[in-house]
């Protein structure tokens, strides 16, 4: 067994280049051979609790038998078909069902195959809608510390830093604003007003800025900002790629907000984390800006695997599970467990801040250096948790949990215990 693991590691290192990884200094990669529920098993049979839902995608646990069964049926019926000029039942049904759950302003769905491309489509929709109407606007507003993906458009609207520096000159210009609080709301509105004439859209992660460090803001303040933009004809692009499908405790972040967006983006949990799929939804008004006898007004965008029947089937099966009473009870249970743990952490001398939005938990470790993704804390904490059989990926000194909804209370208590142990030992 030990040899098998070593062999896989060596073969991987010889040929694979991993994401977000400095290959020279990277710690040993772990070959995973099986997943079941909230657990992953390596080639030695060691078990890991997947406390980050494998990069925030897994909703109902790994290798879920119900999703697997639905996908197997689809795989042997229709595995793939071009989505230009053709359509299929899974895409029609998924669009119908999703639109039934989203704010009623959303009436059309455009499919892609991951989160970044869902963002590219959202930006292209907003920008071309303005172009098709003969408008001359050219500005986009986004939050500081935001993250919307790694393709060029998505990078442009994401917070700038070490990741984007090599491409800085080639990214389009964006007006970055602070996340709203009771104190700064009025000054942000004034800044926006200075650029109203040129501004096409405002793109934001609602309630939780994930990759930026699980930064959280209040629904009431975001709603106020959304309403300010709406009154000024600035289109709202709501990126629910991370927070959608129950993570915030409600089905969508939209369910916490009093204003509805013009465009919404989904991926990650959309298929329950089974296959890549992206969705961009929009209002009828946006759709109408492209709807014409003139062929040049069409949205010229598409991917080879647009609306993959297999991925759509996985999304439908995941939705069946998500809407079940069982899963809703699990979500509420995790929300309550996190609440209790946060109370426990608040008094801890090494804890700078502990916060939660639904099933998303985050804790900032007090450090002398400023909070950063490149803080050494990650390099100490990541192996510490792995040794204890817990997969967590601290963002610098920020420890967070995004558990699959099937994670048991027993496992949550174990994970919390590991965090407390780290606070004692490191
Ligand atoms: C992960 C993420 C994306 C990008 O999705 P990918 O599928 O990784 O390209 C975009 N926005 C948010 C908020 C994300 O968390």
Topology:
Elements: H1 2-15, E1 32-36, E2 39-42, E3 47-50, H2 53-56, H3 65-75, H4 89-101, E4 106-112, H5 115-132, E5 139-143, H6 152-157, E6 174-177, H7 185-194, E7 199-204, E8 208-209, E9 215-216, H8 219-231, E10 235-239, E11 263-266, E12 278-283, H9 284-288, H10 309-323, H11 325-346, E13 351-357, E14 360-365, H12 377-387, E15 390-391, E16 398-401, H13 409-425
Parallel strand pairs: 3-15, 5-6, 5-7, 7-10, 10-11
Antiparallel strand pairs: 1-2, 2-3, 4-12, 8-9, 11-12, 13-14, 14-16
The structure holds pyridoxal-5'-phosphate.
Pyridoxal-5'-phosphate binds next to helix 5.
Could you explain the architecture of this structure?
This protein is of the alpha/beta class. Helix content is about 35%, strand content about 15%. A seven-stranded mixed β-sheet has the order 4-12-11-10-7-5-6, with helices on both faces. A four-stranded mixed β-sheet has the order 1-2-3-15. A three-stranded antiparallel β-sheet has the order 13-14-16, with helices on one face. α4 packs parallel to α10. The longest helix is centred in the last third of the chain and has 22 residues, at about 325-345. The mean pLDDT is about 95. The structure holds pyridoxal-5'-phosphate (PLP). Pyridoxal-5'-phosphate binds near residues 115, 119, 239 and 267.
